[in-house]
Design goal:
The protein is of the alpha+beta class. The protein contains two helices and ten strands, in the order ααββββββββββ. The radius of gyration is 16 Å and the shape is globular. It binds fe (ii) ion (FE2). The site of fe (ii) ion has 4 residues, from loops.
Length: 189
């Protein structure tokens, strides 16, 4: 049964969690059930326009909340069928909960010694599909890619320690073994 839980209530809980001084591990642990609750209570906050995606980018990034200093950022992200992201990191912790549809994630590890700027060698280490209400919690440094293998647009709820365009994070090209800055287009900006 879906219980009511608004993004405003989620943000209040995020602020309380941060004020408690929780470290990253504790933050992710405590955020898991909150993210699941928000995802299952989508009727309280998900709008039809959150399904809109940028055809060039392959997905649509809808900012639901960020603090004035860009911390505690919450997004609804819509994924077009057969589209996704290259492998990337976040430059902060990240918690993702499935809201509508299944999203496939691949996880990678860096295997180079990071001595050469712009050069990165990755090894795929795992893969998992996340359905509605399932939560993926990633410490800073996690590298993953997301892909929508379904025939419909999917939506997931994303919570980050900091707005992902303000963390100097990276995307990775597996074939070129390249690391480059990763900025996303945010809807309405
Ligand atoms: Fe990500």
């Amino acid at each position: 049964m879906a219980t009511s839980y608004s993004i405003a209530e989620l943000v209040e809980d995020l602020r309380r969690l941060r004020a408690s001084g929780a470290d990253e591990r504790e933050t992710l642990k405590q955020l898991r059930p909150l993210a699941e609750r928000a995802a299952r209570a989508k009727d309280a906050w998900l709008r039809q326009d959150h399904y809109e995606a940028d055809p060039q980018q392959g997905f649509g990034v809808h900012l639901l909340h960020e603090e004035p200093d860009h911390s505690l950022a919450v997004f609804a992200i819509a994924w077009l069928p057969d589209r996704g992201t290259p492998p990337h990191d976040h430059g902060t912790w990240a918690v993702v909960a499935g809201v509508d549809g299944v999203e496939k994630n691949e996880f990678y590890e860096r295997v180079d010694d990071r001595s050469q700027p712009g050069h990165a060698e990755l090894k795929r280490v795992a893969g998992k599909s996340f359905d509605v209400g399932e939560v993926l919690a990633m410490p800073a440094g996690t590298i993953h890619s997301v892909w929508n293998e379904t025939k419909a647009t999917t939506v997931s709820l994303h919570i980050y320690g900091r707005h992902i365009n303000h963390t100097a994070r990276s995307q990775f090209d597996l074939e070129k073994q390249a690391e480059t800055p990763y900025l996303v287009k945010v809807a309405g900006q």
